[in-house]
Amino acid sequence: MNHKNILLVEGDADRGFFEVLCRLLGISVDVRVATPKDTGGAHNTKQGVLSHLTSALLPQLQDGQLERIGVVVDADHRAAHGDGYAATLVRFTDALAQAGYQLDPVAASGLIFSHQDGLADLGLWIMPNNADEGMLEDWIKQCLHPSETGLYQHGQKSMGEIPGGAKFQSWHKTKAEVATWLAWQKKPGHGLYNAVQSELLDTESSLFKELHAWLRHMFAS
Predict the structure, then answer these.
(1) CA nearest neighbour of 169 among 81, 98, 48
(2) Domain count, the chain
(3) What pLDDT is recorded for position 78?
(4) Are residues 91 and 181 in the same domain?
(5) Whether 52 and 102 share a structural domain
(6) Which residues share a beta bridge with 180?
């Protein structure tokens, strides 16, 4: 693990997922969560990630304590959080501009911010695909191995047959689908990381390759 390369994520489930994914891809990076203690809040949040990035990590990048920083957050849904992809991008772009970073309009994959004084690039990936509303679970859903499609679709059908209807909010539908699908695997009860660990994802899918390319650009170049 390279403690000078930091991948900052929103929560513990995300951290577990990316720790396993980065090991699979041979990328040495310290995956961290901006905890409520770090940010003065009660819960892990996207705003907490942004606050921790600008107040704690960017100064360490500027003085050489850190070499590379990548950030992964969910776009979420406008109906639920007032965010969505566009609002999330604006929030990060405005905050990073104050630190001298500008968004590269021609980055091959993910979102790359370059610094006016030549500091290392800073990477941002807004789940699921740097375009749509959603979260990590939506990325997983789009990267399913073809052999998993039938089981996943069966889970979707089952949720449509819940007596009395589902208790979760509509914007958490994919989160519930992924949790159901994982609960029916050989190792039920494991977290999102099991999608990687049990080889349930299609590493040849275009979205998987895009995330891989972004991680390599940030931490292996």
Answers:
(1) 81
(2) 2
(3) 76
(4) no
(5) yes
(6) none
